[in-house]
Amino acid sequence: EAFNARVAGAKALNAFLVETPDHALAAADAADRARAAGEAPKPLAGVPIGMKDLFCTAGVPTTAASHILEGFTPTYESTVSQNLWDAGAGMLGKLNMDQFAMGSSNETSAFGNVISPWRRSDGGNAPLAPGGSSGGSSSAVSARLCPGATGTDTGGSIRQPAAFTGISGIKPTYGRCSRWGTIAFASSLDQAGPMARDVRDCAIMLEAMAGFDPKDATSLQLDVPRWEAGLSSDLKGKRVGIPKEYRVDGMPAAIETLWQQGVDWLRDAGAEIVEVSLPHTKYALPAYYIIAPAEASSNLARYDGVRYGQRDLPEGAGLQDMYAATRADGFGAEVKRRIMIGTYVLSAGFYDAYYTQAQKVRALIARDFEQAFERCDVLLAPTAPSAAFALGEKSADPIAMYLNDVFTVPSSLAGLPAMSVPGGLDAAGLPLGLQIIGRPLDEQGVLDAGL
Ligand code: GLN
C-alpha cells in the first residue's frame, strides 16, 4: 500500500504508464498468507516491482511507449515477468521508456518525458534526463517509488540510466534471461536485467529473472547460480583490467576522478590492477548503430496495423495505404530513423559494405575482450562519458545522443555481463556510475566487484 501510494503521488516524474496497484497488493497478500501458514518465504515474497513497458504482461496494456501499440493488451506473460511473479513479486505498474527502447534519455517515448528525481546543486534547475531507454525504471527506483524494476539493455539501456540516477543495474550474459514475451528491438543484443538500489538487490532479482526457457532459441541451457549467496567483497587474487581505449578525449575531469576512485576501491578490496587494451573500441559505436537498426528494421516489420494495436484506415484506402498510414502515424521519429538506417544497410547494394562489415567488427570486438580476459578477471570503466544532461539538451542531435553509449555498446556487442554501480557525485551533485564488465557467464565476478 505504501508503494502504491508513492507511485500515485509521484505523477510529475511520469515514470509509470500504467498503474497496477491490485497486482502488487495480491502479491503482498499472498506473502502474508504464506507467512501465516508457516511456509518458507519465496525469494521476492510480496516485493512490489516496476515493469519496463517492453515486457508483455497478460491483461495489462503494453505499448513499448509507442503509439503504434496503443490499445494492445497481451494475452500472455513474458517469461521474465512470469519468473518474477513465481518468485513472489507483484507489479506496481508499467514503466515509461524510450520508444521501442531506442534512445538514451527517455525522450523518444510517445507518452512524454520521464523526469529524473535529481537536480543540479549548482543552480541550474532544468529537469534532467533519467537516461534511457529504461528511464522510467531508473527514475522510479531512484525516487524510491519501487525497490526494484526491470530493465532491458541492448546497448546500455540498463547501465546508463542506472548511472544517471545513482542506482545499480546489471545486464547479464546474453541468453541468461529469456527474451520470450519481451518486445524485440535488436534480437542478438537484447537482454533483460534488474535495476535496484544496490548490488545485493540486483543479485536477488536477477536470480529470479534468469533461467533457461525453451521458448527462446538463444536462451542458455544452464542452471541459475546462487549469486546472492555467493556475494563476496574480498577481491584478493582477482585482477581488474583498465581498458586504456576508454580514456576518450574530452571526458570530463569528474569522470576521470571517479574512475581513479574505483581503481583505489578495488585495490583496497585486494585486487591487482592491470592495464589492458581493447584496440577496436572506437569501431564499436558505428558497428552497433548499423547492427541494432538492421535488426530493428526487421523486428518492427510486424507492426502493420493488422496484428497489433493502432490501425489508420484512410477513406477508400487499400492495404498498402493502410500500412503506410499506420506506420507513418504510429512510429516516432527516432524509430523511423532506425528503420530507415536498418533497411538501408540491409539493402542489396549496401549489405556487404555496411552490415557484413559491422558483423566483422563485432567479431573483432569480441576477440579484444577475450584477449583482455586472459590478463584479468573483470574490467573497470566509467558507465557513461557524462553525468545526466538536461532534457532537451541532446534531443535535436541524434549523433550526440548516440555518443553517450560509447562505453556501454562494446560489451553488448560481445554479449558480456556488465553492471553499473553508483560511484559518487560530480561537482554539481549529480551521480556518476562505474561499470564492471565480466567474462561470459561470470555475473558473480561482476557483482562481487560491484559490491
Ligand atoms: N541508447 C542505445 C540505443 O538507442 C541503447 C538502447 C538500449 O540499450 N535499448 O540504441
What can you tell me about this protein's structure?
The chain is of the alpha/beta class and 451 residues long. The chain is built from 15 helices and eleven strands. It has an eleven-stranded mixed β-sheet with strand order 1-3-2-4-6-5-10-11-9-7-8, sandwiched between helices. Helix 8 (253-268) links the parallel strand 7 and strand 8. Helix 9 (284-299) crosses helix 11 and helix 9 crosses helix 12 (351-372). Residues 101-104, 133, 153-157, 185, 292, 405 line the site of glutamine. Keywords: ATP-binding, Ligase, Nucleotide-binding, Protein biosynthesis. The active site is at 52 (charge relay system), 133 (charge relay system), 157 (acyl-ester intermediate). Residues 123-143 have a biased composition (Low complexity).
CATH homologous group name:
Amidase signature (AS) domain
Q: Low-confidence parts lasting 5 or more residues at pLDDT below 50?
A: none
Q: List the strand order in the largest sheet.
A: 1-3-2-4-6-5-10-11-9-7-8
Please, how many domains?
Answer: 1
Write the layout of secondary structure elements.
Layout: H1 2-9, E1 16-19, H2 21-36, E2 48-52, H3 79-86, E3 90-95, H4 135-142, E4 148-153, H5 159-165, E5 168-171, E6 191-196, H6 199-209, H7 227-230, E7 239-243, H8 253-268, E8 272-276, H9 284-299, H10 319-330, H11 333-346, H12 351-372, E9 378-382, H13 398-403, H14 409-413, E10 418-425, E11 431-438, H15 443-450
Parallel strand pairs: 2-3, 2-4, 7-8, 7-9
Antiparallel strand pairs: 1-3, 4-6, 5-6, 5-10, 9-11, 10-11
Helix pairs in contact: 4-5, 9-11, 9-12
Organism: Sphingomonas metalli
Protein name: Glutamyl-tRNA(Gln) amidotransferase subunit A
Pfam families: Amidase
